[in-house]
Structure formats: structure tokens, C-alpha cells
Design brief:
The structure is a single chain. The chain has 177 residues and is α+β, with helices and mostly antiparallel strands. The protein folds into two domains: 78 residues; 56 residues.
Length: 177
């Protein structure tokens, strides 16, 4: 049943990736702003207290995802948070402590698509994708081995396997730019 769920998930998300027009855009953009404690942003070359800034933004504005990019120059800085179907860019003025956030929530189809691709998902999810791929290869190969032991259907099965391979190649060669 685990293999069923893996195949089902990747089949459904394969359709959502191939046909985004079937799913209404659920993009929600939020523009938020505020002021940070000047002691956190420092001035000029003073150290920035990034942990305090990140935790404040998460608590105050509900930012999600992992902090994937951080840049602090003498006068300004930026932080980027990303996750499946989600991104938030924070722009900070280090001289005043004022910040502006552009948050994008892209909806369920985008979340599923990002999970399918392993985009902005972290190590454990990528490991799950790898384990799923190995399981699918194992299931496919065991089916092929079983076919070899079915004397009555072996030739027809191997011919169907070859025809399927040729069909996939013809579609690739003829219609993939």
C-alpha cells in the first residue's frame, strides 16, 4: 500500500505539472511592513542579529519555510524564506530598521508540484523521493523477473515491453524539440 501511495502521488502530481491550466491559480500576495529593533540590524559594519530578526518576523507575520538567502550590506539587507508553494522576501533598511515583506502563497497545486520536484523541501523529503524511486525500480524489475517465470505469457509480455520502449522512443524522437 505504501508503493500504491507513492505511485498515486507521483501520477497525480505528474498531471498537475503537465497541465497547470487545469487548476485555478491560487496565488495570494501579501505586502507587509514594520520596523525592527535597531540593535538587531546594527549600523554600517556592526554585526546583525539575524536570529532575532528571523524569529521576530516569523512570530509577527507568520513567515514560513526555510531561510534560504541572507544578504546584509552597509545600508540595507534582504532575507528570503522558501518552502513548497511559498516564498517571502524581506527587504531591510539598516539605517532606520524599517522592513518590507513580499509574501507569495501559491496554493495546493503549487505545493504538490514542488513536493514532486523536491523543490524547497529539505533533505528528509528528498531522501523520501530517492527511496520512492528505488522502490519503484525494484517493483518494476521484480515484475519483469516474474514475467520470465510465466512461460505461457513470457513472449507476449516481452514483446509488449519492447513495443512500449519503442513507442516511448518514437514519441521522444518525433515530437520532443
Amino acid at each position: 500500500m505504501t508503493s500504491f501511495m507513492v505511485v498515486f502521488f507521483f501520477a497525480v502530481t505528474g498531471l498537475t505539472l503537465n497541465h497547470p491550466q487545469w487548476f485555478a491559480s491560487q496565488l495570494v500576495t501579501s505586502n507587509l511592513s514594520g520596523t525592527l529593533d535597531l540593535a538587531w540590524v546594527g549600523e554600517g559594519t556592526e554585526p546583525v542579529r539575524q536570529l532575532e530578526i528571523v524569529e521576530y518576523l516569523r512570530a509577527t507575520h507568520g513567515l514560513e519555510g526555510a531561510l534560504t538567502n541572507s544578504r546584509m550590506d552597509a545600508g540595507d539587507g534582504s532575507l528570503t524564506f522558501t518552502g513548497p508553494g511559498y516564498s517571502a522576501d524581506v527587504f531591510i533598511d539598516r539605517t532606520t530598521g524599517q522592513y518590507r515583506i513580499v509574501e507569495l502563497r501559491m496554493g495546493l497545486a503549487a505545493i504538490l508540484n514542488d513536493l514532486h520536484k523536491g523543490r524547497d523541501t529539505g533533505g528528509p523529503w528528498k531522501a523520501l523521493i530517492d527511496v520512492s524511486a528505488v522502490l519503484l525500480v525494484f517493483i518494476s524489475l521484480t515484475g519483469l523477473v516474474l514475467l520470465c517465470f510465466l512461460h505461457k505469457h513470457r513472449v507476449a509480455g516481452l514483446l509488449a515491453l519492447g513495443a512500449g520502449g519503442v513507442l516511448v522512443y518514437v514519441i521522444y524522437a518525433a515530437w520532443v524539440p
